[in-house]
Specification:
heterotetramer; A mainly alpha (318); B mainly alpha (290); C alpha/beta (248); D alpha/beta (392); A: mainly alpha; two-stranded antiparallel ribbon; 12 helices; globular; D: 392 residues; alpha/beta; Rossmann fold; eight-stranded mixed sheet; six-stranded mixed sheet; 13 helices; 14 strands
């Protein structure tokens, strides 16, 4: 029964997502395409965090670093578009953003994954702070103020400067990656990852070099977050260290929890709910944080399994 | 760098170090005993400073401000512990991070509503407003020396509390073996509340001591919070001794980093230090749990 | 006969406490070798050192003629040294079958396979089902491990240990917390493994130990005070002394 | 998913229907400001000053009722950009005002200019928008970032200081500040130029270095809380009596002074405005602001107030028809309003040509910290970037 309901909601939601630009245009509310662009991009970021947080049990408190470096990769390549290595082509910039983010995740993960528990939380935070201060001090790229991009990346036949096209690109990326993640968590690799979350010691005793598996998951997650960052840079046509601020990492965690940790659709729900909440609350009162704060505590205390969990009260995390 | 300047910078490093120790001691105890990662520890620092400043402005006395703010912050801490945080002890770190992240948002906004968005003023106690020549020719603010002295005194008191008293025995036992405390027939809930209150009071003390030097503003807790985390993690979670050593280490490293290194690298000094130490010793310098 | 596992001069101290004190011990192929001793004798520390979770201060561990003293946990497991845990540690969110499938998977080459669903792969599922049948859990394959009875979870532990076709099993109190009936079933199960595996058995249930073991080593304060056949141990004066002293 | 999307849909469409149901009579102004977090004090002063300006224009701007749609950018450029897009696309605002911080300004600039919406910056004046990327849709009613620093560079030079020590946070505004200072300082030596981490709370280490360098003047740019921290610690280290301290008005304004205590007393600083500037509009503003909000106005409140007066004058000049963009632009450009700062005109880049004053921090009769006018450093000063702007 609940399973049917969940299916209806999932497919209905998907249909709605696909039709949204037309609906919004029909109602003359083009702004909601922009808003949903942001939601979907942050959903992508939250999804990447969910892979290591929800499926791998790695509480990374520095995920903003990958989001930020992905954005900066696109920004810096565009900034140098006259130089031999510069480019405004999305077909180069987006993979480059993923690659750079993956390399950063490899370096940070290789060190951080030697620790666990609170130490892991704090060392990932420390690395993210290092990346934050690194970009704050890059005067050429605007330092604290960030840098403006002249236009969105050039995606050949697809005109990214059109919000609706941009929306479909982001939606397409998100759906493809969601499906990839759906396959991944059910694959041999995913089984190992989930096993590590359940009981790493047991997995080692079974003969799994858990460190390597965690590191690979960490790198995949970083790369996808880098892609989200690249899209974020394109959406705002602006890159700045505020994308790397530690509170961003916190917000991404909130989205994952809010939507439902270790679920496929959870991060989308989480990102949507968080941004709508932020938007609605901040329009009601200047002191909206005083509502949001306790709300977060309440969610943690009461709705432990997130919004997706409400649809599926007893189901196993999938 | 001349020798005199060097001595002065060491003092500056010590002063930053003892401030961090006051913050880190409470946090590491809460980490070690209750297993709680509390992002809102910085909020208690902020509340301590604001309350003390308000009382000081009303009464004209720094000391009265201090004496009122400490118990107020302890009570706020204990109330938060009983209402919300207690339920988080059995939860994983992720839940704790999120809930206490929510607490930060709440307290920041609360302070903004009560005291306004502008920076708030806290005066220096008159007695300590001058300078002292630590070495002839090097005047050093008396108040900063007082901070160092207070910090060291608190460190000694904490040491005595933990090693010589019954509650200290329970704290030590709690940090290494939670079941044992249960087995001793102690009211664990009350012990936890008391420890949390103690941690809150220490954080508030740091905030009050910092008040006359700094602007009191919303968000002041977060800038010291992350440094405090670094200290706790370097020292080894749950170890007060580790927190002390790490606090001084971070204080000195940060001070000299700022003076000697270009700004871009100086800002990263302590994070690099932390990463290096964790690579070398993944459990920090003095791990409390064997 | 060359021993399959050979421990010599093993030592481990925690602060002031000596947990393992220059211990030397051989496990022969095909034998069940039991380790007994009062609480705090260092049995768990020994298992920890053999499985690789605890680094010894001194001494060597040789397994199948190779020095494994410094090998990490997973490498030892892949070489054929499997273990069960004192506190049941099956993966509670997985079904019984998935638990065993993971154990099979660990020995089936690397798991950097990101696309094909694992749950339906016959290469994993068939051996897992066979292993479950072997430990008496044939009908319980798709039950979540968390929903299994305590005794069943312990059987599942054994299945997971066996799935990698190990040469030596380290069993850390497999009967802990079991009722008499469950114990009897487990004893039967272990007796059936005797032909095909070497087993190092740490156990408090003396009835089971004396029924199953070929040889017994008695550990007190980290030292082996006696090693011998069950009959010899039963008759050993030092052992009686240690046990009466320890338990009284 | 159901609950979330229902909630979202409800929030989305309910508010939009409401928005479109309202007729277009009142003038809609999107007001982007920083209202939460550490930067909020400035943002709130902008809002309060602007509201007072509307009040003093008879509750309307140029005869049109005003609907003020405020948004909190949280000091995050991407949030600012989303606010701007929402205001343009959903709320269909007639113009956008506000913006405290340069980074937010840079992020909102493009969507606003692309949509041909007028933007009136009440504070942020990044050099890019004053120079190469100046826009016919952009007006700044405050100042260009460098100007106060240039004024102090001139003053310090005029006073004949030979060994000057400079400090600022390590971010673009900090670099711009010291560049601005150096642009007009000459005749001596810059013996130190130190950049500290942004939002650094404690400066003891840097002050020890500073003392050892034995400068005869110190120029700092530390806005907000950083300024409070630095000024208090400078005085506590006993340096204030040894080496005179100079700064721009942002380090010594009325949002900061209540928190510095006596540490700031007597410090000379430069800015485009002073609360005691002798003109009737200013007297009216200061009196009304203090009465209404029970705090003395800051320069931020003053420039926002001017912003409202400017809009009032331009909107009435076009008879309320702001949609006639060329006429409206010309009316803005004319700047026919009584500014609280005295002479005011727009340059070719739509940045103000205005005086810069030397001010001194004092205590007023009630014991409150404020500033006193000392003299004029620059008369009708233009920013350094207007040449790069192609607009005539």
């Amino acid at each position: 029964m609940l399973d049917i309901l969940r299916r209806i909601v999932l497919w209905g939601g998907l249909a709605l997502l696909c039709l949204l630009p037309m609906l919004a245009e029909a109602l003359g509310e083009g702004f909601y395409i922009t808003m949903m662009n942001r939601v979907l991009i942050l959903a992508l970021a939250a999804m990447s965090l969910n892979l290591i947080l929800g499926y791998g049990g790695m509480v990374s408190f520095g995920h903003a670093a990958y989001l930020g470096i992905g954005a900066y990769t696109v920004g810096i390549l565009a900034y140098h578009s006259d130089a031999w290595f510069g480019t405004e082509s999305a077909f180069i910039a987006l993979p480059a953003a993923m690659l750079v983010a993956a390399i950063l995740a490899l370096a940070i993960g290789a060190i951080s994954l030697r620790t666990s528990g609170v130490y892991f939380i704090m060392i990932t935070l420390a690395f993210a702070q290092m990346v934050y201060f690194f970009f704050v001090s890059q005067q050429e790229y605007g330092g604290m103020d960030g840098m403006q991009m002249w236009s969105r990346s050039d995606a050949g036949p697809i005109d990214l400067s059109d919000n609706a096209s941009f929306y479909y690109v982001v939606l397409g990326l998100l759906l493809v990656l969601l499906y990839a993640k759906y396959r991944l968590v059910r694959s041999r690799f995913g089984l190992v990852l989930r096993g590590i979350r359940e009981n790493e010691r047991r997995m080692k005793a079974l003969g799994f070099p858990t460190y390597r598996y965690k590191l690979v998951a960490f790198v995949i997650s970083g790369a996808v977050a880098g892609l989200a960052g690249a899209m974020m840079a394109n959406l705002s046509e602006f890159v700045s260290p505020s994308l790397l601020h530690w509170t961003r990492s916190g917000e991404m965690m909130v989205m994952v929890i809010l939507g439902g940790m270790g679920t496929i659709a959870g991060p989308i729900l989480g990102a949507l709910a968080f941004l709508v909440l932020e938007d609605v609350l901040s329009e009601i009162t200047q002191h909206w944080m005083i509502v949001l704060g306790p709300l977060l505590i309440l969610i943690v205390l009461v709705a432990r399994r997130g919004l997706y969990g409400l649809l599926d009260p007893k189901g196993e995390p999938k | 760098m001349t020798l005199l300047l060097f001595v002065e910078q060491v003092l500056n490093g010590l002063q930053l170090g003892v401030m961090l120790f006051l913050m880190a001691a409470g946090m590491t105890l809460v980490f070690g005993i209750m297993g709680l990662i509390n992002l809102a520890h910085g909020s208690l620092y902020m509340i301590g400073a604001y309350v003390a400043a308000t009382v000081q402005q009303a009464t004209g006395s720094f000391l009265v401000g201090l004496l009122v703010a400490l118990p107020v912050a302890a009570l706020v801490g204990m109330a938060v512990e009983m209402i919300a945080l207690r339920r988080l002890y059995p939860r994983d770190h992720l839940d704790q991070v999120l809930a206490t992240f929510g607490l930060i948002l709440f307290f920041n906004e609360l302070v903004k509503i009560v005291w306004g968005p502008q920076a708030y003023f806290m005066a220096m106690p008159d007695m300590l407003s001058g300078s002292v020549d630590i070495i002839p020719g090097i005047p050093y603010p008396a108040y900063r020396l007082a901070i160092v002295a207070t910090g060291l005194a608190v460190a000694i008191l904490l040491y005595l509390l933990i090693t010589r008293t019954r509650i200290g025995m329970l704290i030590r036992a709690g940090a290494t073996n939670r079941e044992m405390v249960n087995a001793l027939g102690v009211n664990v809930d009350r012990l936890y509340t008391i420890v949390f209150g103690l941690g809150a009071a220490l954080a508030a003390l740091a905030g009050i001591m910092a008040g006359p030097i700094l602007a009191l503003e919303v968000g002041m807790g977060e800038s010291i919070l992350i440094l405090t985390f670094v200290v706790v993690v370097i020292g080894g979670i749950g170890s007060v001794r580790g927190a002390f050593v790490a606090a001084l280490l971070v204080g000195i490293a940060d001070t000299f980093g700022r003076v000697l290194l270009p700004p871009a690298i100086a800002e990263m000094t302590i994070y690099i230090l932390m990463a290096a130490i964790l690579v070398w010793r993944p459990q920090g310098l003095f791990p409390a749990h064997a | 006969m060359t021993p399959i596992l050979s421990i010599s001069g093993l030592a481990k101290r925690f602060g002031g406490v000596t947990a393992t004190d220059s211990l030397s011990l051989d496990i022969l192929p095909g034998e069940i070798h039991a380790i007994i001793g009062p609480n705090g004798a260092g049995k768990t520390t020994l298992i920890g050192q053999l499985s690789g979770e605890i680094a010894p201060d001194a001494g060597t561990i040789r397994f199948k003629d190779a020095d494994i003293t410094r090998l990490p946990v997973h490498r030892r497991a892949l070489r054929g040294l499997a273990r069960s845990f004192q506190i049941t540690s099956v993966l509670r969110g997985f079904t019984a079958c998935e638990n065993v499938m993971l154990a099979v998977q660990a020995h089936a080459g690397h798991s950097f396979r990101f696309w094909q669903p694992a749950a339906t792969q016959a290469a994993l599922r068939d051996p897992a089902l066979a292993m479950l049948a072997r430990v008496g859990l044939a009908g319980r394959a798709d039950v979540p491990a968390a929903d299994l009875a305590h005794g069943e979870q312990r059987q599942l532990e054994i299945a997971m240990a066996l799935a990698g076709r190990p040469d030596l099993l380290l069993l850390d109190e497999p009967m802990a917390g079991m009722g008499p009936e469950e114990s009897a079933r487990m004893t039967g199960l272990l007796a059936g493994l005797k032909a095909s595996h070497s087993i190092l058995l740490v156990e408090h249930d003396m009835d089971a130990v004396f029924r199953l073991a070929d040889r017994i080593t008695v550990l007190v304060y980290g030292r082996a005070i006696a090693t011998g056949t069950p009959d010899a141990i039963r008759a050993d004066a030092a052992v009686r002394q240690a046990y009466l002293g320890g338990e009284a | 998913m159901k609950r979330a999307s229902l909630l979202a849909a409800a929030a989305f469409f309910a508010s939009s229907i409401m928005a479109s149901a309202q007729a277009a009579e009142p003038l809609k102004i999107g007001f982007i400001s920083t209202l939460s977090g550490p930067g909020a004090a400035l943002g709130i002063d902008l809002v309060d000053g602007f509201k007072l300006g509307i009040e003093h224009s008879g509750g309307t701007l140029g005869g049109r009722a005003v609907e003020l749609i405020t948004g909190d950018d949280q000091l995050k450029p991407d949030v600012g950009r989303q606010l701007a897009e929402r205001m343009i696309q959903r709320d269909k605002v007639d113009l956008i005002a506000g913006v405290v911080f340069s980074n937010v300004m840079m992020a909102v600039a493009k969507p606003i200019f692309d949509s041909k919406t007028f933007m009136l910056s009440l504070n942020a004046g990044p050099s890019d928008l004053a120079g190469k990327r100046c826009s016919p849709y952009f007006f700044n009613v405050a100042w260009q970032n460098d100007q106060s620093h240039e004024a102090m560079g001139k003053h310090v030079k005029d006073k004949g200081y030979k060994r000057v020590y400079l400090m600022a946070p390590n971010y673009p505004a900090g670099k711009d500040a010291l560049t601005g200072f150096k642009r007009y300082y000459s005749g001596g030596e810059i013996i130190g130029e130190v950049y500290t981490a942004i939002n650094q709370p404690d400066y003891a280490a840097e002050l020890a270095q500073l003392r050892a360098a034995k400068p005869d003047a110190v120029y700092i740019f530390y806005p907000g809380g950083m300024g409070v921290n630095f000024i208090k610690q400078y005085a506590q280290a006993g340096l204030k009596t040894e080496v005179p301290l100079f700064g721009p008005s942002f380090s010594f304004d009325e949002t900061i002074l209540p928190a510095t205590g006596d540490a700031a007393l007597g410090v000379m600083n430069t800015g485009f405005w002073s609360p005691d500037l002798p003109n009737p509009q200013n007297a009216k503003f200061v009196k009304a602001f203090t009465a209404k909000y029970s705090r003395p106005p800051s320069p931020f409140a003053a420039q926002a107030y001017d912003g409202a007066l400017l809009l009032d004058s331009a909107i009435s000049a076009v008879g309320g028809k702001v949609s006639d963009q060329d006429r409206f632009r010309a009316a803005l450009r004319a700047a026919k309003f009584d500014s609280v700062r005295g002479p005011f005109a727009f340059n070719n880049n739509h940045f103000p040509i205005q005086n810069f004053y030397l001010r001194e921090v004092i205590k007023d009769d009630t014991g409150r910290m404020t500033n006193r006018l000392v003299g004029t450093v620059f008369a009708r000063h233009m920013d350094a970037y207007h040449d790069q702007c192609k607009m005539k």
